Automatic annotation (TrEMBL):
One of its GO terms (biological process) is phosphatidylinositol biosynthetic process. It catalyses: 1-octadecanoyl-sn-glycero-3-phospho-(1D-myo-inositol) + (5Z,8Z,11Z,14Z)-eicosatetraenoyl-CoA = 1-octadecanoyl-2-(5Z,8Z,11Z,14Z-eicosatetraenoyl)-sn-glycero-3-phospho-(1D-myo-inositol) + CoA; (5Z,8Z,11Z,14Z)-eicosatetraenoyl-CoA + 1-hexadecanoyl-sn-glycero-3-phosphocholine = 1-hexadecanoyl-2-(5Z,8Z,11Z,14Z-eicosatetraenoyl)-sn-glycero-3-phosphocholine + CoA; a 1-acyl-sn-glycero-3-phospho-(1D-myo-inositol) + (5Z,8Z,11Z,14Z)-eicosatetraenoyl-CoA = a 1-acyl-2-(5Z,8Z,11Z,14Z-eicosatetraenoyl)-sn-glycero-3-phospho-(1D-myo-inositol) + CoA; a 1-acyl-sn-glycero-3-phospho-(1D-myo-inositol) + an acyl-CoA = a 1,2-diacyl-sn-glycero-3-phospho-(1D-myo-inositol) + CoA. The gene is MBOAT7. Residues 381-392 have a biased composition (Polar residues). The keyword Transferase applies. Keywords: Acyltransferase, Endoplasmic reticulum, Membrane, Transferase, Transmembrane, Transmembrane helix. It is found in: Endoplasmic reticulum membrane. It is a multi-pass membrane protein. The keyword Transmembrane helix applies. Belongs to the membrane-bound acyltransferase family. The chain crosses the membrane at residues 268-283, 327-346, 352-374. This is Leukocyte receptor cluster member 4. It comes from the Eukaryota. Pathway: Lipid metabolism; phospholipid metabolism; Phospholipid metabolism.
Length: 399
């Protein structure tokens, strides 16, 4: 299980239909297909190569291989092979051409561990699957579409979005863990731990490949490059912003690299709104996507302003209590936004939100106004704030 195919025929071996996902109505829908994302990334990698080559020509000397830089412009066949690679065909994760190339060129694929990392990664999936089946059976989404649902008391309507989002998370946890395990089984995305790889982007430090089978066997590897979900981080991080980073992590890297950084604005909130708008379009044309995604910038603005206005003035004990309240409200915000993501239609999403009096929108507006009134600082300062990102010890995080 630890090897990958190498050699001239490897490009043909890994041809498969492109990275399509299911439609938004399928119960296991995992979002928009990643084929265009791969090609956008490849175009950027080729551009980086051309820029580096021009700099070399201008300076008159070669600096040697740069981190993550392609060795050459891929041919049409290589581009098609990358686009149609079977790894991640249905559920992702997103991967760069450099990652794909490193996989094919792994010098000692038999030394790359896969069985043990696969088992370590896969063990929570059966539990998540059972929790998904149980929660979706006890709290079916279809109930929200019935008139009888809106005759229930307000607390019951408010509560219902919690198990709906819980089932939503469990479904994606299972699917993305399975996708990661598919990559791990193929030895895809494995890099030495010393390279400090990050999800989507790959290595952040130069780490030469092992020069012998013995060195390869003694090298410690990880699969952070293709890590697509941090289940613990998603559930227990404190802020809305951090919750986004732990969810669909390889695509989050792609969005940050190619959408957020090129947004036609400098403000963090407006850049986030631009990114969420294009992310909604990427998922499809259902109004629920836009209603949900475009609520995120409001929540980001509210939590940023209020956090800077209040948290720093509290004692350590008060900050701990603040973080618990912040976490609770973060989860309720995601519960609320999830309803638009699963109901999809404009009428059904607004009907549900109206039945709970648009509580998250109103709460976010109140928090934003309060933060502004108390001098919550400019958006450029939010990233410098350092609240606790998780409510529990890092030792409890999944391996």
């Amino acid at each position: 299980m630890g090897g990958s195919s190498c050699g001239p025929r490897a490009h043909l071996v890994h041809l498969w239909p492109p990275h399509f996902a299911f439609s938004g109505h399928h119960p296991w829908d995992l979002g928009a297909h990643s084929g265009p994302a791969l090609l956008v990334s490849l175009a950027s990698e080729v551009q980086d190569l051309h820029v580096a080559q021009r700099k070399e020509m201008a300076s008159g000397f070669s600096k040697g291989p740069s981190l993550g830089l392609l060795p050459d412009v891929p041919s049409l066949l290589e581009t098609l092979s990358y686009s149609y690679c079977y790894v991640g065909i249905m559920t992702g994760p997103f991967f760069r051409y450099r990652t794909y190339l490193d996989w094919l060129g792994q010098p000692f694929p038999g030394a790359v561990p896969s069985l043990r990392p696969l088992l370590r990664r896969a063990w929570p999936a059966p539990l998540f699957g059972l929790l998904f089946l149980l929660s979706s059976h006890l709290f079916p989404l279809e109930a929200v579409r019935e008139d009888a649902f809106y005759a229930r008391p307000l607390p019951a309507r408010l509560f219902y979005m919690i198990p709906v989002f819980f089932a939503f998370r469990m479904r994606f946890y299972v699917a993305w863990i399975a996708a990661e395990c598919g990559c791990i089984a193929a030895g895809f995305g494995a890099y030495p731990v010393a390279a400090k790889a990050r999800a989507g982007g790959g290595p952040t430090l130069q780490c030469p490949p092992p020069s012998s089978p013995e060195k390869a066997a003694s090298t410690e590897y990880d699969y952070e490059t293709i890590r697509n979900i941090d289940c613990y981080g998603t559930d227990f991080c404190v802020r809305v912003r951090d919750g986004m980073r732990y969810w669909n992590m390889t695509v989050q890297w792609w969005l940050a690299q190619y959408i957020y950084k090129s947004a036609p604005a400098r403000s963090y909130v407006f850049r986030s709104a631009w990114t969420m708008l294009l992310s909604a379009y990427w998922h499809g044309l259902h109004p629920g996507y836009y209603l949900s995604f475009l609520t995120i910038p409001l929540c980001l603005a509210a939590e940023g302003r209020l956090e800077l206005a209040f948290r720093g003035r509290l004692s350590p004990r008060g900050q701990k209590a603040w973080d618990w309240v912040h976490w609770f409200l973060k989860m309720r915000a995601y519960d609320y936004m999830c309803m638009g993501f699963v109901l999809l239609s404009l009428g059904e999403t607004l009907r549900y939100w109206a039945s709970i009096y648009f509580c998250i929108h109103i709460l976010a507006l109140v928090a934003l106004g309060l933060g502004l009134a108390l001098g919550g600082g400019s958006p450029s300062r939010w990233k410098t704030a350092s609240p606790a990102t998780s409510l529990a010890s890092g030792k409890l995080r999944e391996e």
